[in-house]
Amino acid sequence: MNEQQIRQLLQQVANGDLQPDNALMQLRDLPFENLGFAHVDHHRALRTGFPEVIFGQGKTRQQVLDIAERIIGHGSQMLATRLEETTANALVERFARAEYDALARTVLIPAADTPLSLPTGKIAVVSAGTSDLPVAREAVVTARAMGAKVEEIYDVGVAGLHRLLAYRDQLHTARVIVVVAGMEGALASVIGGLVNIPVVAVPTSVGYGASFEGVAALLAMLNSCASGVVVVNIDNGFGAGYAAALINRDTADGA
Amino acid sequence: MNEQQIRQLLQQVANGDLQPDNALMQLRDLPFENLGFAHVDHHRALRTGFPEVIFGQGKTRQQVLDIAERIIGHGSQMLATRLEETTANALVERFARAEYDALARTVLIPAADTPLSLPTGKIAVVSAGTSDLPVAREAVVTARAMGAKVEEIYDVGVAGLHRLLAYRDQLHTARVIVVVAGMEGALASVIGGLVNIPVVAVPTSVGYGASFEGVAALLAMLNSCASGVVVVNIDNGFGAGYAAALINRDTADGA
Amino acid sequence: MNEQQIRQLLQQVANGDLQPDNALMQLRDLPFENLGFAHVDHHRALRTGFPEVIFGQGKTRQQVLDIAERIIGHGSQMLATRLEETTANALVERFARAEYDALARTVLIPAADTPLSLPTGKIAVVSAGTSDLPVAREAVVTARAMGAKVEEIYDVGVAGLHRLLAYRDQLHTARVIVVVAGMEGALASVIGGLVNIPVVAVPTSVGYGASFEGVAALLAMLNSCASGVVVVNIDNGFGAGYAAALINRDTADGA
Amino acid sequence: MNEQQIRQLLQQVANGDLQPDNALMQLRDLPFENLGFAHVDHHRALRTGFPEVIFGQGKTRQQVLDIAERIIGHGSQMLATRLEETTANALVERFARAEYDALARTVLIPAADTPLSLPTGKIAVVSAGTSDLPVAREAVVTARAMGAKVEEIYDVGVAGLHRLLAYRDQLHTARVIVVVAGMEGALASVIGGLVNIPVVAVPTSVGYGASFEGVAALLAMLNSCASGVVVVNIDNGFGAGYAAALINRDTADGA
Amino acid sequence: MNEQQIRQLLQQVANGDLQPDNALMQLRDLPFENLGFAHVDHHRALRTGFPEVIFGQGKTRQQVLDIAERIIGHGSQMLATRLEETTANALVERFARAEYDALARTVLIPAADTPLSLPTGKIAVVSAGTSDLPVAREAVVTARAMGAKVEEIYDVGVAGLHRLLAYRDQLHTARVIVVVAGMEGALASVIGGLVNIPVVAVPTSVGYGASFEGVAALLAMLNSCASGVVVVNIDNGFGAGYAAALINRDTADGA
Amino acid sequence: MNEQQIRQLLQQVANGDLQPDNALMQLRDLPFENLGFAHVDHHRALRTGFPEVIFGQGKTRQQVLDIAERIIGHGSQMLATRLEETTANALVERFARAEYDALARTVLIPAADTPLSLPTGKIAVVSAGTSDLPVAREAVVTARAMGAKVEEIYDVGVAGLHRLLAYRDQLHTARVIVVVAGMEGALASVIGGLVNIPVVAVPTSVGYGASFEGVAALLAMLNSCASGVVVVNIDNGFGAGYAAALINRDTADGA
Amino acid sequence: MNEQQIRQLLQQVANGDLQPDNALMQLRDLPFENLGFAHVDHHRALRTGFPEVIFGQGKTRQQVLDIAERIIGHGSQMLATRLEETTANALVERFARAEYDALARTVLIPAADTPLSLPTGKIAVVSAGTSDLPVAREAVVTARAMGAKVEEIYDVGVAGLHRLLAYRDQLHTARVIVVVAGMEGALASVIGGLVNIPVVAVPTSVGYGASFEGVAALLAMLNSCASGVVVVNIDNGFGAGYAAALINRDTADGA
Amino acid sequence: MNEQQIRQLLQQVANGDLQPDNALMQLRDLPFENLGFAHVDHHRALRTGFPEVIFGQGKTRQQVLDIAERIIGHGSQMLATRLEETTANALVERFARAEYDALARTVLIPAADTPLSLPTGKIAVVSAGTSDLPVAREAVVTARAMGAKVEEIYDVGVAGLHRLLAYRDQLHTARVIVVVAGMEGALASVIGGLVNIPVVAVPTSVGYGASFEGVAALLAMLNSCASGVVVVNIDNGFGAGYAAALINRDTADGA
User: Fold this and answer.
1) Could you tell me the sign of the dihedral formed by the alpha carbons of D232, D238, D239, D244, in that order?
2) Could you list the pLDDT tens digit for every one of the 255 residues in chain C?
């Protein structure tokens, strides 16, 4: 609820069109819904045209279905991430438009009618190795759900630099690049050094021994000698895709 | 050197306008200069209109002056960060247009003649506490050197939430927000939850005991429950300002 | 055995009512019982009216049943935590009054006859997300077993601040608040900044990557910029509920 | 600003006593003051009778004096912690009623006229070793500034258990106990096992080698096998004293 | 091969009783046996009367049986630790005198004929909780296999100090005490403060959250404020029992 | 593509034998093949005579088979590491010359016709304990696949120093030594102190408790007081074998 | 106060020789002295003949002098460790018999008249490098103050194994060995493998980079593959000397 | 003392040319010299022609001079590292041939007469940034002292990849490459991917915040996706230079 809305509400009170107690109730009546175990926040999705997101990890199939029911009931589009296969299948069975991406472990249910006006820029999602694909795909699905054009470039780690250099043009024409890499995470620095575009780096838990489940890549990316590299949590493809889509929107918050 | 340039060069060879060996030399003749202890890279500054940056930490006053001399000689603007006070003063004495920001520990030397075309968006730089100011100011100076409009909002940590909420409008109208916070770093999540704008979070080493010189804030920011939050290294005001300015540019890499 | 009791015993010796060697034996005869693999301490429960607690993790079903048998035999009430489902069911089968909370993984067996005089204050247990519920419920069950009134507020994490602010009044009227949060744990600071009430913060292992199984939330809570926030171990709902109930008792140790 | 106040404000608008725009301004006019580098929050102190607190670490002498000036100007009492000696002396010179505790590194300036009604309970502050005294004293000064009665018991670490046991009665009659210990931090568990009172444990950075500047004590306290032990940050005597005073108040938040 | 033996060998060479090349071969012919995947070292067992030890973790059942066969064939006694149940049963089936301790996960096969002359001192093995028993038992079995008298005192953690104090006499009459504790590991310091006897502290991985699989207890024990406490690896009951038995032997190395 | 080749290509353009656009394409036409999920890099194998390597961990059986198919199709030899047993068997079934080493978890498929000219030096691979064998064997298989002679010395840890000293001659005559050890990793320092040969140390995750899955050994090896010790990642037998084979080649890069 | 003394006291009460209240007072009247900032515990020193110990780190010169005054006044001998040079000199000036060891940073003041009956065994203190000497000397001084014979063997690290092997006989004839080593700490394992004697390992903070101020050596020693190695805190020469002296006493606690 | 020498000695005993006791003494009489605080090991230098090395850190000027005196007295060449400037100057004053490298903080004193036969290969030492120079220079001086030809390439970090690619030929013709880099340490992987030559990677403590004094670079290098990369300790230029020189020697240990 923004200032403009408060002003209107106060005006209604001044006009006698609204009782103070009712106004108080409205000030309180925030657009979320209490399911007992979860507060579904319709506010954000309605305002931004972005999908509501269900983070599936640690939720039961029934919980995911219940929350999805409410979201779809409000006419929002919906993105569910980190899904068990059985939960994903249950969503696909229940909702006609549901699109399941097994690699990314996501289900997207687009809104019935309101096509997003697409931003003109594009996002490049680049991964260092084959094992980084699930995280990269989660970023791709998320960014597309938010209306972005996405190009995918996979398995171009720094151990074979010529593979990466072959994609130089695609990198230069992106509005923002998501770099997904495990092990020593050097790809973020190398790409950051090649371009003058924001780079959202995603460390992955790919590696062994002293990679410490992604910590080595995380630290490397935080310490990148290339300017313009920002970092999200280990394996957080969703977060990277979301941030990249926000960057790609090219407008301030409309709320 | 991009594909277009290679194509032209190859055409010159085909035309007989250029000997193969000269072409080879040009392919090798990359735009950097070897000072013995440092390679100054004029390429990037020329291409982007961004300033050349000298990271002052761990360099002697003489090294900083020598590198600055070369950069200014090329007509680039220049930003030096993490400067000892004496080094900063030496730069100010030597270069007429040098602007010293003591809090941010930076010196900026704008280019003589080429005014940047400013992007239309603005960047909000927000800090949690008074002690976070030097880092916040480094971000401000950096972003301004790259042509951005910046608004500053300081000392609005989550322990007094009403202080932050009073600046809600300023936050919503920014193109990107830089959040600078130490201790538990919660400010990034709270702001990330309020807006739908990219948030570049900078953990600072402000705190004591189990803050572990900024690690607590860093981890908090990486684990933010709010979408759209990306993170840079501890105390890296420069990196945050640089990334925010790239996001604010709203165009792909022109290189 | 407190001073008053020692004084009486010494008086009995002085009166000739007690032989020195018998007195020595009594000084040694402390109120615990040796089961071979465990010392059951009836002293504390008898003195405080609080339940005896069995920490179920790492104990076999038979061990839990044996210890429970002794406790119930002494007429104490009993709380068992971190139970495997089969162990919980065994307790429910064996003891008529046993109350099983599957989410909290606890079994409570109230005392047959001695109702606790309830403290007048109340405890608010607040969680950031749906996945934090098991830990939150463990706190709730524990505090109720110790005679406290408890209000539950779930899924009000800082990413949607308006959800939390809607419960402001309930927070202000509590005697002590238990805040349960994983990921970046910012909820503790935000609530700590809203109220002037002791806040017992419980980091949970909810999260992934650089949450390091709850370490990120733990550090955030220890570094809270809000005064009045104290912290217990990761996922330690029992400890938080216990401490909150002690704070809510409003009297010194009667022992 | 609580609901009651919003209700009154809305009533004034309904009565025509207040223009909507003025109401909006009041909703915005929150009780803090912008000093440029700091927002002084008078709200909390006025509401609770607790002192305003200046955390001195990382602030210049002038900054501390400026903030103090504003606070005293509002008639609040004030507590400044982690002061450099010269800053402390400057405060003592400037403010007649200022009380400097060199060991605790604090300055307290009591309010001129409004004596606090003291809570009836008392706080015991216990330290393991002589080197823990500065932290313990910071807790003592803080709790007293908030109106609490405090008893001090120092140098009773577990290596000489009989020293601690001699103070058993004092421990049992406290409303809350602050335990300050470095090295292995075992004192918190031992005291937590002796009493049924909330124990606020403060790990200190006293120790060497694998104490890792207080981490060993912090972990020990978080893993205490005794129920009722809660923990604050390393060396955070202020936080422990503050939380203990809140626990000792025995009432919910009056705000 | 000690100096005495080299002297004899050299004397044989001087006497012409041994060819230089044969002597060289003997100097090389060290008393171990190569099984391909393992070198069995009979030297130590023969010299000390201590059992040969097979560390069972990470070895297949067949490997354990093969090594055991060689050891028993040399007439040594043998202790196998960290055994899978099936491996333990295979040893019991194969070797008539094998004694299996399921809790400690050990099998001991005493030598047929050479009874050890027992040292006169005794070892006390003390554990904090019921869950620490497997580690404690491993220490007990190991020390007994090396000829020591051992007394066991279990579940006397510091949360109920009176339980521990009841065993004071047993502690004072030991030659060395093994203290086994997880969680905050405070028991080692408390016992170390009660006695003037070497204390071998064994941290266990019992605990959760910030116990970090025994690290909290390990750090606590290393930082013990009580003198005379030495530490072994987490869960290393074998190491503690072995060291305690060496301390209890009261003689220098006979080798 | 090296300078010589660029020179030839430019000459062809100058001669009119090659169109500029075709030249550009060749400059781009790098010798790797895009399988969609992986870029197979034939360049390196062709140039060096070394096998192509498939790192099997985290790849499906089908992915491994597909990549293998391409490699063998190019006539390269191939080494696959970290294979599940079923994947290894599938390779053996599919490729006639495939050699499976179950302990090392590798499959090697030698090239049909081009025998490598062997270097004259030899590599010694030494392990501390029986449990280190899988890692040691991975090093052995890798080094042999690269044409090296390898000697294996196992189970000669420092707890029985005489076992190691018996192999002194074999150590002195190696060109490079690979030392594989877990637990405290002391073997690397001891061997490094005995010889003046490069020692490639491989920490293994063998151990428990405070070995932290190989970290203790890793740190020990990095801090070796013996000169000439270099280190690879925990359990990285492949990396050690590869580096050792490069050292053993005794020539610069022929590329 | 042991059972025997309690028995006597109770007998006196039974005899009417002692009033119950006086008995109670005696039960409370424990042998320590409150200096305000420290409790001096004369009990232990009187009972054991061991010196009272002042841990000098973090204490002012005056505090050390005051505590020393009390201890000497009781006729105990005294050992002060980790002394600043000026504090050490002050002690030497004040107390005629004071012996200052500048390398160990200790002052020992032997008791005037009560010569300790020396144990018959001896302690070997062995260091890996020259930089480990201060820690090694602290162990030597401590052990000697407790009546032990000590042999010193320095700079025999594993990088030159023959240096160590030359002292084999001295090692075999010790009752207990203290091994002091930094860097990778391998010396403890090598010595532990040579002898069948308790080894007290002291990691030192000697090293750089990934030695992490002694953590590498600490972990190595905790993970020693040699049985009989126990560990004390980093740089804790005092603790090692104290434990070694207890082991060398060859008797149970006389208390 | 090798087998050949033992054989000769035994032959002398057999011949009656040597008494057994004298032989025993010789077997013990190992070639090191005891200075009290240090054992100088002449054995290694004499055998290999490599310089004796004094690690200067933590040694007093006098200790360094004393050790140097002995080494030079034996006619060996000598390398001292990590020297304070005053110590370096003292060496230069004392020894005519001493060569001081202020950046590397080393002093080299070549042997008077025995010129090393140089290996034919060369070592490339590459650094990422200007701040890495001291570590790189330490590697250069060390390798040269051991007879190697060294080429230096500085300030070619991955943020400006074209700078590095310009030196490709120099990299390909080296026998071994030392890569020195701080921050995210990506240079090691990029170079490792370009060549088929052993790469010795040296992480430096250059960086800030989450570089954790070189840990980020260390982890990156250990997790390098490029084969053939081995790692030494943080800032260990000496170790890298030493290992590279051993690799460059192209012969097994002559000892």
Assistant:
1) positive
2) 444 556 677 788 788 888 777 776 565 433 455 555 565 555 454 455 677 899 998 888 998 999 899 888 877 789 999 999 999 999 999 998 999 999 999 999 987 655 455 677 899 999 998 889 999 999 999 999 999 999 999 999 998 888 888 888 899 899 999 999 999 999 999 999 989 899 999 999 999 899 999 999 999 999 999 999 999 999 999 999 999 999 998 665 644
Q: Does A42 touch chain C (CB under 8 A)?
A: no
Helix (H) or strand (E) holding G218: helix G215-222
Closest CB to F253 among H196, H233, H255: H196
Q: How many CB atoms lie within 10 A of CB C249?
A: 24
CB burial class (10 A; 0-12, 13-18, 19+) of residue B114? exposed
How far is Cα F202 from Cα F92, in angstroms, rounded to an integer?
29
Identity of the amino acid at B25: M
Give B-chain residues touching C217 at CB under 8 angstroms. Answer: 223
For residue E15, give the DSSP letter: T
Sequential DSSP letters for B161-204? HHHHHTTHHHHHT-SEEEEEE-TT-HHHHHHHHH-SS-EEEEE-
The pLDDT of residue H64 is above 50: yes
d(CA F26, CA D159): 77
For residue A55, what is the nearest residue in chain B, using CA coordinates? B225
- Output b/e per residue, D134-164; b: 16+ Cβ within 10 A: bbbbbbbbbbbbbbbbbbbbbbbbbbbbbbb
pLDDT along chain D (255 residues), means of 10: 60 80 56 56 55 86 91 84 95 94 94 60 93 95 94 90 86 95 95 93 94 94 94 97 91 53
Range 187-206 of E in CB contact (< 8 A) with D: 189-190, 192-194
Q: Which positions in chain E touch G250 (Cβ < 8 Å)?
A: 250
Which residues of chain G are within 8 Å of residue E53 when distances are taken between CB atoms? Answer: 227
Q: How far is CA D247 from CA C203, D43, G234, H65, in A?
A: 21, 21, 39, 64
Q: Residues B92, B98: contact at Cβ < 8 Å?
A: yes
Per-residue pLDDT tens for B9-18?
Answer: 778 888 888 8
C155 has a chain A CB within 8 A of its CB: yes
Sign of CA dihedral E15, E16, E17, E20: positive
Q: Report d(CA B232, CA A245) in Å as an integer.
A: 19
Q: Establish whether this prediction's ipTM goes over 0.85.
A: no
Cα–Cα distance between G142 and D75 in angstroms, integer?
A: 58
Neighbours of chain F (3+ CB pairs under 8 A): A, B, E, G, H
What does chain H come to in residues? 255
Vertex E94: Cα angle to E88 and E99 (nearest 5): 50
* Residue E253 C-alpha, separation from nearest chain H C-alpha, in angstroms: 21
**C218 in contact with E at a CB cutoff of 8 Å?**
yes
**B224 φ, ψ to 5°?**
-55, 135
Per-residue pLDDT tens digits for D165-204:
888 889 989 999 999 999 999 999 999 999 989 999 999 9
Tally C-beta pairs within 8 A across B and D: 54
Output the DSSP codes for E141-184: HHHHHTT-EEEEE-S--GGGHHHHHTTHHHHHT-SEEEEEE-TT
Question: CA nearest C15 in G: which residue?
Answer: G14
The C-alpha atoms of residue D223 and residue E129 are separated, in whole angstroms, by 14
Q: Are D225 and E193 an interchain contact pair (Cβ–Cβ within 8 Å)? A: no
Q: Looking at chain B, which runs of residues are DSSP E strands?
A: 32-34, 39-41, 52-55, 78-81, 99-101, 106-109, 122-127, 149-153, 176-181, 199-203, 229-231
In this complex, the chains that touch C, judged by 3 or more CB pairs closer than 8 A, are A, B, D, E, G
Flag whether residue G130 sits within 8 Å of chain H, measured between CB atoms: yes
